[in-house]
Design brief:
There is one protein chain. The protein is built from seven helices and seven strands. It is of the alpha+beta class and 203 residues long. It has two domains: 124 residues, TATA-Binding Protein (2-Layer Sandwich); 65 residues, 3-methyladenine DNA Glycosylase II, Chain A, domain 3. Strand 2 and strand 3 form a beta hairpin.
Length: 203
Amino acid sequence: MAKHIVDEFTFSLSEVKPCLADNMRVRIIAQFETDLAPILEILFLYFRNANYSRNLHCVTTKRAGQSTTVFGSGRVAMTFLKNEQEAIDRLRELSNTFSKAYTYLENTGPADSETVEKKENINALQIHKLLPQTDCGECSESGCFAFATLLMNGEREIDDCNPMKLRENADKRSNLVKLIQPIDLTNIREDRSDLAEFLGLKR
Ligand code: SF4
């Protein structure tokens, strides 16, 4: 089984099979050699459209019809991929996200349990309350509630609603960001040497 190394993360594909829903697509299982349990809740707060299962100890996120489940054990399952190469590309991207999540953990600490609970119970009604509620249709949806549902599912972005960019809606926008993506890993700067030490991989 070929091992793939992306900075501090090593993974291998343990299974590649046709998707049950479409046999032209593949589903895969990969195993990371790093324990992902410490960053699971951080990933949950970062991924849009994510579910967190405390029982199975995993986080699932969906994007463009593809589903990715990350287990605390380091196992990752993905569905609806074009081929094995796409799987490897996605796993490389994921390694980068894990790296940022570990940096976040090291710098900021674990995810706040109250925020995790809030995100577990998020619904379209809560999102709708933070939108302008004018049903203006500028976003090309039938109204703010339809937009709220798509936003919750990760199919639209907050910036697709132009009125939310107005100064008068700044507080609503900031509360909405906190609700749907309480942790933003995008701009996290990693210190590779610190990270390797933190992961117990000092080389
Ligand atoms: S653009 Fe914004 S305010 Fe207008 S309908 Fe869409 S979500 Fe509502």
